[in-house]
Specification:
two-stranded antiparallel ribbon, 324 residues, single chain, alpha+beta
């Protein structure tokens, strides 16, 4: 039923799950004409999905490595079957690479690529008319969340190593927040906003050899402070298992991003401060574990929780790596 909507896609041979996330499900669909990536969008917002598709089509014309969806015979890119939204993309052969696998040159290439994404989005997207406030987390809310998570971590019937670590990190973070509460970024200090990918990290970038082959998963395409996406991405790509950032690679990445995006040092410095504060108040992995009973992110907790502590201690060095 799905393939009949497209020209020359062949007959189905197999359909195997390859990815599972909060916003979509992914499958490798093999046909008599080749392989495709079949994406099931769980949110089912036809217009929002089509909006993402139009963005990637325009970005491709500007040389951004993306994998726009296949158009159906009637020119649509979203197939609605049984009330569910699907999209068919060409299959891109490639692999994911984190910061440990990137050389200094590849780190510069990564920063330049994200800068290209931001500048090209500015060219292909309509200016966002909404004047939104991007408020930083309120430590009072975080203190309440810490208390709630402590109860849940301590109350596990069968405690695991992560529960002990969670209790330690929650107590440690509460102390750090009490000490640094006065450093909450005030309203109006956010960097310049613009259209961003919204989820730029190693699992959403495919490499073919040393070169990026495709930026995928544009579900969170939206308007945000642009430099903050650059800092968040670096904090994912270049974090070591011990929770430290590879600052030499961060510096190469950030300088290339600034050149490509036309961002100055003050913009990156502001983003560093706001993302640091965000990380200091963020417990998304523990929320998943204790509130959603979702353990998929558990393996990330050791490094992510250690990063907030290390970043606080090495704040000036991190700021200099991004803005120096």
């Amino acid at each position: 039923m799905l393939l009949r909507r497209y020209r020359n896609t062949g007959d189905p041979l197999s359909c195997e799950p390859v990815a599972q996330g909060l916003l979509n499900r992914g499958y490798r669909l093999r046909t008599t004409r080749g392989a495709y990536f079949l994406k099931h969008h769980l949110d089912g917002d036809h217009e929002a999905i089509a909006h993402q598709h139009r963005a990637t089509q325009r970005l491709q014309t500007l040389g951004v490595p993306v994998a726009p969806p296949v158009e159906s015979t009637d020119g649509d890119t979203v197939a609605v079957i049984g009330g569910r939204c699907y999209a068919l993309h060409p299959w891109v052969e490639g692999s994911h690479r984190d910061g440990a696998q990137l050389t200094a040159r590849a780190s510069r290439r990564l920063g330049g690529l994200l800068g290209l994404v931001h500048t090209c989005l500015e060219r292909v997207m309509e200016p966002d008319p909404a004047a939104l406030a991007y408020l930083s987390p309120d430590p009072a809310d975080t203190f309440a969340l810490i208390d709630e998570l402590l109860v849940l971590a301590r109350g596990r019937a069968r405690r695991e190593v992560i529960d002990t670590l969670a209790e330690h990190r929650l107590l440690e973070r509460r102390e750090l927040l009490e000490r640094h509460a006065h450093r909450r970024p005030p309203p109006g200090t956010e960097p310049a906003t613009g259209w961003v990918h919204g989820d730029f990290h190693p699992l959403n970038l495919l490499y073919r050899g040393a070169e990026p082959a495709a930026i995928i998963d544009w579900d969170r395409l939206g308007v945000q402070p642009r430099a903050e996406e650059a800092v968040r991405a670096a904090a994912i790509f270049f974090v070591r298992p011990t929770g430290e950032l590879e600052l030499t690679k961060v510096r190469a990445y950030a300088r290339a991003y600034r050149r490509a995006a036309g961002a100055d040092a003050s913009e990156l410095a502001a983003a560093v401060h706001r993302v640091w504060w965000e990380r200091l108040n963020d417990f998304w992995i523990l929320r998943w574990r204790y509130m959603l009973d979702d353990r998929r992110a558990d393996p990330l907790f050791a490094a992510v929780s250690a990063l907030a502590v290390w970043w606080t201690r090495e704040y000036e060095a991190v700021r200099e790596a991004f803005a120096g």
